[in-house]
Amino acid sequence: MKAIIFDLDNTLFDHTGSAVQAVRGWLSELGVAPTEELLAEWFVVEDRQYGRFLAGELTHQGQRRGRLHDFLPVIGFPVPPTEAEQDELFAGYLKHYRAAWSAYPDARPALEVARGNGPVGVLTNGSTVQQNAKLKAIGLAEYVDVVCTTESLGVSKPDPKAFRVICAELGVDPGDALMIGDNLAVDIEGAQAAGLTARHLDRTAGQTLLDVLEVTGE
Questions:
Q1: How many C-beta atoms surround the C-beta of residue 28 within 10 A?
Q2: What is the pLDDT of residues 27-63, one digit of tens each?
Q3: 3 state SS of 138
């Protein structure tokens, strides 16, 4: 492989752990007990509304408002009537989310290994500003040569175009690139459809990024 491409959320960056901490802190500020049921519902809502953003139905900020429309009735809170008020309320969650941002312990060592092999890319379904801010905040930006996002590309994984564009920006053919991610359908099947080699990271089974790189011989 002449280049290695990583997914960001739940691959290099611990989105789930950060979001759990954020929801707990935010709900407590609102005077609501952060039960396991409410945490689970938050992620159901997040998946639904974020999927609408990835499909082009909503802006990134629009999906945040959509999450409030879905989640606030569950905790017995009225949805603020104006978008400005909704954005202000969601900012309370974002404050806790950003404070909890963290990389997985294996992320930096894996990127160091990958850089010894050639250029490194991050391909992520998210907003350009936020995803780059995450990489910088968790100390990984210096290890990444190219970052491509849903916003910068105009398409989302698993669209093969997303994988082909980042390969072009890295200066390699798809057949010479390796994609590593936690989502089988989005990261792995999408990459394979575009002609890349792909390896699934299964953190639920205790697998690490270094395990995946070792399997590939990098």
A1: 12
A2: 999 999 999 999 999 999 999 999 999 999 999 999 9
A3: coil
Catalytic residue among 7, 106, 182, 187: 7
The domains of the chain, with CATH numbers, are 3-14+102-216 (3.40.50.1000), 15-99 (1.10.150)
- What would the two tokens of residue 16 be? 């789930």
Q: Does 7 participate in catalysis according to the annotation?
A: yes
Nearest to 107, CA basis, from 9, 190, 178, 197: 9
DSSP per position, 144-205: -SEEEEHHHHSS-TTSHHHHHHHHHHHT--GGGEEEEES-IIIIIIHHHHTT-EEEE--GGG
State the pLDDT confidence band at 217, using cuts at 50, 70 and 90: low
pLDDT digits (tens, 9 = 90+) for 190-202: 999 999 999 999 9
**Residue closest to 186 by CA, chosen among 149, 159, 206:** 159
